[in-house]
Structures are given as structure tokens and as C-alpha cells.
Amino acid sequence: MKRELAGTARDLAAYLRTLDENLAEFSPAPSGVRSPSAPAAVPSVKPPPESPSKMQNKPAVDMDSLSEQVNKCRKCGLGHARLNAVFGVGSRKAKVVFVGEGPGFQEDHRGEPFVGRSGQLLDKIIETVLGLKRSDVYIANIVKCHPMKNPETPEAHGNDRPPTPEEISACRPYLDEQLRLIKPACIVTLGSVATKVLLGIDKGISTVRGRSYDYPVELFGPGHPITVIPTYHPAALLRNPNLKRDTWEDMKMLKSFLEKAGGE
Ligand code: SF4
User: What angle do CA 246, 37, 16 make, to 5 degrees?
Assistant: First the structure.
């Protein structure tokens, strides 16, 4: 028992050291450097209008065709202003899918989710606590195109905003289709917006985190739920390093879940 506790304390100390080094690289942000991709303000997001029971439980397409559909998509206004659609990245057989709210400036420019400062921090957390690489998990967002305050200026920094309920509703089916294809055991929602949308609840992340939930959409039929573990968006850790300990606890819960589920 004593040995176990000492091991846990060592793990936590190593994690905090690694994140401290990472945060020190980023903070304080040099003047002129933009804020992390996720905006500070959290919108009031209503649950999506789709009724879980009405959703199909078989994938309609393969991942490449789905990605092509997203690349051509103009179902909402975001599709007209984006530089690149940001479909998702990682293992298509991942046991865990990390979901954020939407792409920011860097992601829009590179066409890949979580590549800015918060993305680098997410990679460190995945590596340090889970012992996995970015390529072992899958990373995606609720909306696939960059929500901008001013869609006329995609090259401007500080132009991020949260997606609207309408944009979320238009894009949400793509995420569920990705989940049907990957068949993960677990979804980690990053931040309040992703958590509210995927759990269909209207509570902030600090209230909801610290336990697991069943994904309310039956993607694989009754009796085959996906576990949802909510945690802070890495951008929140960049703003408030005090949150990293709670994030560590959430990731340890994920690690133990994955070990029981038998792999990454
Ligand atoms: S955000 Fe989603 S629904 Fe809107 S245009 Fe982009 S891919 Fe289509």
C-alpha cells in the first residue's frame, strides 16, 4: 500500500514537472502572441435536436468518404469562411477519442485539430499520464470549421469565437459518424462546450468533471454505451495552471478505464 502511494506521488510529481516545463514555455505569453485557440467565454449550448433513438447505429460511409464530405461541406456559414476544414486526426482504431469545441487560427491554417499551444499541451498530457502518443488516440472537434468573429479576416489573430447552437447542430452528425466508424470505448470531452453538447447537459465543466458518464447517443445499439470522461480544455490549463491537478486525476481515471478495457 505504502509502495503504491509512493508510486502515485512520483507519477503526479513527474506529470506536474513536465506540465510546468510545458507551461513555462508558453507562459507568460510574449506580447503579440495570440491567446490559445479555445475562447475564454463559454456559450450556453443546448443539447442537439437529434433524438438519440432516431439516429442510425451503422456507419453510412467510410472514413475517407466522410472526410471528403466534410471538405466539401457548406451546410453552415462556417464553411464559407474557413481556410481548411479540420476533420480529425489519429488512429482510426483508437480506444479513446478526444473532442474539443472547434478549430482555431492554427488549426484552420493547417487543417488539423489541436496543433497550437493547447494542442502541444494536450500531447504532453497524453504522453505523460497515459503513456500514449498523439497517433495512438483520435482527436476531433464538434464543429469542423473555424468559428470566427469576423469571417472576412481569417488571417487575423484573436478572431476566434465559440460555435453557435445552429452551427453545432449542422455539424454534429459528422462527429457521430466518426465515432461510429472508430468505435471507441471512451470519449474525453475537452472543456465546457464539448461536454455540454455531447452529454446534453447545461452545467459547467468544473461541476461535471471528476466522474464518468454514458454517452447519451446509442451509436452501437442498446447495451453498448460509450463512456464519456469530461475534463478541462488544455487552453484552460494555459490560463490557469491550478487546473492541471484535476486534469491529472481525470486522465488517471481514463488510464485505469483503458487498462480495464484492454489497451489504448
Ligand atoms: S462547420 Fe461543419 S456543418 Fe458547418 S460547413 Fe463546416 S463541416 Fe459543414
Answer: 30
Q: Which atom of ligand 1 is nearest to the CA of 73?
A: 8
- The cell for 25 is 514555455
Full domain range(s) for residue 161: 2-261
Q: Which protein residues are within 6 Å of ligand 1, measured from CB?
A: 70, 73-76, 78-79, 85, 143-145, 167, 170-171
Q: What is the mean pLDDT of residues 33-48?
A: 41
Residues 102-140 have pLDDT tens digits of 999 999 999 999 999 999 999 999 999 999 999 999 999
The residue with cell 452529454 is: 199
**Structure pTM?**
0.85
Average pLDDT over residues 187-216: 96
Residue 5 CB partners (closer than 8 Å, separation 6+): none
Buried b vs exposed e over 168-196: b needs ≥16 C-beta within 10 Å? bbbbbebbbbbbbbbbbbbbbbbbbbbbb
Number of folded domains in the chain?
1
* Section 225-234 average pLDDT: 96
Q: How far is the CA of 37 from the centre of ligand 1 (A)?
A: 18
